[in-house]
Write the structure tokens for this entry.
Amino acid sequence: MGTLVGFHLPEEGQSMAEIALWSAPPNPWMILPVICLGGLLSGLLVYTYAPEAEGHGTDAAIKAFHGEGRIRRRIPLLKALTAVITISTGGSAGREGPTAQMSAGFGSMVADFLGLSERERRIALATGIGAGIGTIFKAPLGGAILAAEVLYTRDFEAEAIIPGFLASVIGYAIFGSVEGFEPVFSPVAVEWTVTQIPLFLLLGVVCAGMGLLYIRTFYGTKQVFATFFERHHLPKHIKPVAGAFLTGLLVVALIYLSPETAIVGLAGLGTGYGFIQLALYSMLPLSVLLFIPLVKILTTSLTIGSGGSGGVFAPGLVIGAATGGAVGTALHLLAPAYVPAGLLPGFVVVGMIAFFGAISNAPIAVMIMVVEMTGNFSLFVPAMGAVAVAYVLTGESTIFVEQVRTRAQSRAHRGEYEVDILEGIRVKEVMVPRSSVIALAPEDGCGTVLDLVRSTEHTGYPVLEGDEIVGIITTRDVRALLAAGDLSSPVREVMTAPVVTVAEHRSLEEALQLMMERDIHHLPVVAEETPGRLVGFITRTDLMLAHTRRLASGGDP
């Protein structure tokens, strides 16, 4: 982009004097072939060598954690290469997704090398995610917390926090030694008062709506591309170039339309961080701030939704920053005394936190990260209010669809949270009812038992006087009679009495314990209020079938 198109766009971290010198490219039409070339190269690499490297990467890392806990060794290199190609040629994407997948891949490699257990392997993956993101954004604390928070929509992977701290510190120390330890964005001092907190809560509401729009547009675009290419039997390798072409076309059209739309269009390319810096300096007009979120949502959806390689975090920060800047600027124009110009950078920072903290279901981590990235530690209180409002309003909608709700739904914790299924099923739910039970009377001959065994293939029969159970006779008893050569005895002489029974309201777990303790395979079921009255019959086979059915239904009754 720098050589062929002549990009001299604003960059994060520049001073106000430096950033004021930015200019649009002299040959905007050159954006189209360059961005298309990037999409083509990225698509060929991804779909030829590693289809799981498509998209924004963080989801793939989350999926690996909840799945097999493994990432193929080729992924870190391929993800790095394709992300560099996508972002450097103008694709609207960020560095966090690729970094998350790459770092999780290194965690998987370490687990292989050290022969770690399955549990330790998953912690290594989560640690990699946090350390990589914390390092690339110079936000080690937020990155470490993100490793524990981003895996779930409503839970926390506490075991990953301490390893995440250590790995983030090491990564940050090495990275900062080369790139410097200054925050990603040049800090801008902000002062706020308690009476202005409701305005930040209002911003949280706006960010929630914009966040839902981002999620639905992103995944709607992804579905459109997938359906179109499948229906027309087109190779997936060219999906990213199709998205890149549409992105470039939109941006070029906006550049030629007017000076203000040119700023909006250029903000739709790459990470867009320079335009966040402009917003922090209050150097973007309201007309530009209003449209940057919409265009950035569209260009990101086209770039990554089509299979391009890059993250959704950076575009999300741009969308949140512009949304916050727009709300702050509008309030300043309406009530300049209540919302002074010096407060506008605060709306930009809080907008980033509220927007992405809500749609990533990681409000704590994102809040800490953005504060670290901007150096505005004084904004914690208004940021807490705004992100809380946005988080509640977005519910469990998420930009990371591989998140699971809680640890109980994760394969990584299946053994810890698996409740014995038999405990949740009552005997009366699965027993053979009295009307279907084949029973004997005490005076019946033992030859009758043998005939019933041959005709029904059942192995045990209750012995009743009326509805009262007085004993049980099984094939074990019949075999003993056959060995003695005498089948003329009445059932009462060979039946087992008193009989072990189970009440109908008991659980299958209790029934199984009775069977195991007494080494029996059949249990007459009696009424709760009249313990001698037979109401059903249950066998070990009935227990196994009930267990299997409940497993097949996902644990639902």
About this structure: Strands lie at 432-433, 460-465, 468-474, 502-503, 522-526, 534-539. The two ends are 59 Å apart (CA to CA).
